[in-house]
Each structure stands twice: as C-alpha cells, then as structure tokens.
Amino acid sequence: MLQDLNEQDQIQDFYHKIAKNVARLRKQKGFSQLDLSLAIGYKSVSLVAGAEAGYKNIHFNLEHLFRISKALDIDIREFFEL
User: pLDDT per residue over 57-77, tens digit each?
Assistant: First the structure.
C-alpha cells in the first residue's frame, strides 16, 4: 500500500513536470493559453489552464502533447525533460 502511494505521488509529479514544461515552452513561443487552446482545436482554455494548474486531475494526454508540439513547432521530447 505504501508503495502504491509513493508511485501515485511519482505519477502526479511526472504530470506536474510535463505541465510546467508545456507552460514554459508556450510562454517562450509567445502563446497565451487561449492561443494554444485554439491551435490544438479547443474553443476554451479549460484543458490548457486546468492541466497547467493541475486542477481536478486534468492532464495532457499523448494526443494533446503531439498537437501542442506541432503548434509550438518544437520536438515533443522537450515536454519530458525532467
């Protein structure tokens, strides 16, 4: 049970680092949360803002990261730099 909690903490930390990398790269490229949301096919900032803030376990999935990497014109691996 303790190992499961530790693993869950590690998973949450992993999501957090990815979200922080997305936010950092988004800002470096001059995109607002709305700009990025629209570029990946969303009409509101709820996904991007929620994932960046870690709100209610909202996370970017692989498709999101693929689309974001294309919108920002970066290598998808940059999101996984820990």
Answer: 899 999 999 999 999 999 999
The pTM of the full predicted model, rounded to 2 decimals, is 0.89
Cα–Cα distances in angstroms (integers) from residue 25 to residues 1, 4, 63, 77, in the given order: 36, 32, 17, 12
- Three-state DSSP string of 6-65: HHHHHHHHHHHHHHHHHHHHHHHCCCCHHHHHHHCCCCCCHHHHHHHHCHHHCCCCHHHH
Structure-block tokens of residue 71: 């919108």
The distance of Cα 1 from the centroid of its chain, to the nearest Å, equals 28
Amino acid at 37: S
State how far the alpha carbon of 66 is from the alpha carbons of 8, 9, 55, in Å. Answer: 24, 25, 21
